[in-house]
Hints:
With 215 residues, the chain is mostly beta strands.
Amino acid sequence: MDLMALNSISYGVYIVGAQDGGKLVGCVINAAMQITAQPPVLAISLNHDNYTHSVVEKTGRFSLSVLSEQTPPAVISIFGFRSSKDYDKFSSCPYELADGLPIIREKTCASFVCKVVGKYDAGTHTIFLGQVEQAQKNEALPQMTYEYYHKVIKGKEPAKAPTYRKEEKENKPASGENNYVCTVCGYVHEGSLDNEPDDYVCPLCGVPKSAFKPQ
Length: 215
């Protein structure tokens, strides 16, 4: 079976938000889609191990922010490679509250507030069905696709993403180059880091040169 065939399926990049007794939580997902029009219902996929999953399951509500190509890469790094259990992700990202749920409006395409009306256990993930209670069209920007995230931003796939495959090797260095990869977010620096200043940081997640390793 050629699992690379799955790469032919299109994905976006989104932030799911929720609130746990006043604590704002959220994570990056790439699986979200509209299921019905009347009433409007969205489906999202959340890993069982995500703290955000437990909050959505407990509260029965979530927000969805649709990221654009102009969304700062650091937003993806914060929400994709840290846990809301021990880090306040929204403290590092401008947000607004919509009916008590955090949404990101700046440099995003749209945002939604949803009430969970159904769920399906899909093994490692839960598919939540959310009836749209609020919808906001934000900026007229091109939506960020997962292909754009990989090829342009050169980001790594979070281990909890439904499309993650451990054996997958991406961002291979060009012939004759010694590339370096960020051990936190997977950003690939093409060529040696020796020519970068001492205060160089990863443009995706902001960690220093010491967090890179040869690819």
